[in-house]
Prior knowledge:
Blueprint: E1 8-12, H1 16-27, E2 33-37, H2 71-74, E3 77-80, E4 85-89, E5 94-97, E6 102-104, E7 107-110, E8 114-116, H3 132-142, E9 148-152, H4 156-167, E10 171-175, H5 188-200, E11 204-206, E12 211-217, E13 220-225, E14 230-233, E15 235-238, E16 242-244, H6 247-251, E17 260-261, E18 273-275, E19 280-283, E20 290-291, H7 296-310, E21 322-327, E22 330-336, E23 343-347, E24 355-361, E25 364-371, H8 374-386, H9 401-405
Parallel strand pairs: 1-2, 1-7, 2-3, 7-18, 9-10, 9-15, 10-11, 17-19
Antiparallel strand pairs: 4-5, 5-6, 8-16, 12-13, 13-14, 19-20, 21-22, 22-25, 23-24, 24-25
Helix pairs in contact: 1-7
The structure holds nicotinamide-adenine-dinucleotide (NAD).
Protein name: NAD(P)/FAD-dependent oxidoreductase
Pfam family, one: Reductase_C
Organism: Nocardia jiangsuensis
Amino acid sequence: MTVPPSGRVVIAGTGIAGATAAETLRKRGFDGEVVLLGADPAPPYRRPMVSKELLAAAFPAEKALLRPPAAWPELRIDLRTGTRIEALDPSASRVALAGGTALGYDALLLATGGRPRSLGVPIPGAVTLRDRHDATALRDVLARPGIEVLVVGGGLIGTEVAASARAGGAAVTILEAGPRILDRVFPQPVSAALEQLHRAHGVAVQTGTAVTEADEISGRTRLRSADGREWIADVVVVAVGMTPDDELARAAGLRVDDGIVVDEFCATSAPGIYAAGDVARFPDPVHGGSVRVEHWNHAQSHGAAAAAAIVGERSPYREVPWCWTAQYGRTVQAAGRPTAGAELILDGDPAGDAFLALALTGDRLVGAVAAGRPRDLRAARTLIGSGAGLPRHLLDGSIDLVALAV
Ligand code: NAD
């Protein structure tokens, strides 16, 4: 679908997918109305900072803003924060906003992201981390002297929170159900090295630990695991994954399958409605099948792709996803699917400041992880995307992916 030049595009979600889509519409010359609305009361900000910089006492929240507030009206983007869509009527091309207002659209982009997955065990006073408000609240708690923190889930949020809390002097324990922290994101040698890094910074890491019970004891929270162990802390942070916010689409009869199903042009099963970012399940150009990706960079490029599709460009989405985490001053980047390979080739020590780990299936690169080697990581994305076979003899010893990718 192409929107009429003076038409209205409504974007649901002020995260990076929605905000980038709004800006991209203008960059691509769309001159009509752009309404960017989201439940979050804050103007668009850098969500990766929620589990890192925004937890530090001295970090000013304005530094997390994606654009200065004046940039949105300058771009003629009608930014409506704190505005929730209550319902979607595809047959009338209309959304219903909280308070009873209806808003028609020529194209609608659903970039609603997700929310923290529930642990399934009620935990008194548990904290989850999704938005800037959550980060500010947790930051104030972490600032209390002598605070003890339990982090349930040793994934990206859990480990980043643990590192931020340690930097502020809190005592931290991570309770991870799986055999390793960061198991979903990094291959074993890399996650083992990061686990060591956490221990070296004084974090107690308990893997293979599923919380089954919780209660309050003298104003603190007590957690118990299935095998009877227990921990008591001042605050419990639950970070056990995310659930896509696809309810609007589901209720409106769009195709949903752990996320809103879209094609390679970000189009949903309903005409004129698109989805992008964490909430969208799209065709995986590298591995086949479909995939949902929950990383900032993907949401950014997927939002841009949706905007391009809305203005009528037919360019299938083929980005290889990548992400980064920063913990104790070490930045680790990952591309593709580093845990999916049949074989892992290491160049350098994953416990050091510079290494490259390549995940291969046969002679094909399917994923990569690196620290201190951003150019190799960029080259890895090109090679993963091209699907080209890598010559074996060039993967022994010191690997130069940049040369291989040209
Ligand atoms: P995650 O999937 O990264 O990690 C969840 C962790 O919780 C996993 O290690 C899992 O094994 C563990 N877990 C699951 N059930 C558990 C249980 N009952 N008890 C204990 N542990 C349990 O999810 P997250 O850390 O919650 O992050 C949410 C989303 O935000 C993810 O999509 C993540 O990719 C994204 N995020 C990304 C970054 C980044 O790219 N640097 C940073 C923060 C968040």
